[in-house]
Design a protein that fits this description.
Blueprint: E1 10-16, H1 22-33, E2 38-40, E3 49-56, H2 63-66, E4 71-79, E5 82-83, E6 92-93, H3 104-114, E7 117-121, E8 130-131, E9 134-135, H4 136-141, E10 151-167, E11 173-183, H5 189-200, E12 204-214, E13 217-218, E14 225-235, E15 241-249, H6 253-258, H7 263-270, E16 273-275, H8 278-285, E17 290-291, E18 302-306, E19 311-318, E20 323-329
Parallel strand pairs: 1-14, 3-12, 16-18
Antiparallel strand pairs: 1-3, 2-3, 4-11, 4-12, 5-6, 7-10, 8-9, 10-11, 12-13, 14-15, 17-20, 18-19, 19-20
Length: 337
Amino acid sequence: MAATTAGQSGLLIIDKPQGVTSHDLVAAVRGALHMRKVGHAGTLDPMATGVLVVGFGNATRLLNIIVEHSKTYSATVRFGQRTTTDDADGEIMPGEPGAPLPDLGAVREAVAQSFTGRIEQVPNAYSAIKVNGRRAYDLARAGAEVELKAREVTIRCFDVLDAHTATGADGTPVLDVNVEVECSAGTYIRALARDLGDLFGCGAHLTRLRREAVGAFRADDPRAVHAHVESRTFTNREGATVTRNRAVLDETGHALLSRALPMIDAVRGALPIVEVDEGEARDLRFGRRIACPAQLPGGVPCAAVVPATRDVVAIAERANARELKPLTVFPAPAGRD
């Protein structure tokens, strides 16, 4: 039986499986909840697994805020091979003949000296960044030359855990290094792997990438929703055999809704909270300013909520030293002004 979702809003923490896109998961949620107003807070590559925050209803207004939160990843960097995409989905490229593999100590030293704090990073051409209105990966797949500008990112923590030697599918000796990274929004872990490989001259790419957390939203949250991949093979109009993957949620309908974070929990994970009373809530909903708590910093959005009723009123920010102004207003709960 289909869930009744009219007027409902919330966030889903989805543990994305490997082999599908973030858009595939959004499509799965749209189908499961029979809603059009669904979006996600930050793309994961098809190869990657882990946290994809999906919002539906009014919670989609939080996604542009959540996407700017810090991210935590676990990954495996394979030294000794370059690929076209800097991950395992790309084609292996010729390496430097005879370039030695680093040892674990050398990798740790390089990370400490050059890959922590604020660094400059050039994203891979096979990324979701838009160039003149088109995704970079679409241009790259079409054979166009894609040059992306360096951008500053912040690596808050980069732990090099352990390593083991192996042999790649093409017979190349490789070193697989497991790492954990906490970084600012916009950081490409693939680019970290690529740049580490370039530093040692042997090349490197990712063989595993898992997003463990987006800000306060974590993969180990008991409310996380799991999904799996189903493949379908068919013959297209040109007569070619095509196999496509689709994302399938392990829970749908009421079971899926029961795992959603309601708006009050969603905003608590996304924003600082300012508690307001019923009168202030009414003023904000009419676009009026209210008194601002002294401790709220300027230029930082917050969520105005009525704690007694768990009513999420608005996204707001400091207008001046004394006043708070609404930026986005949420409708009052049914049956109230």
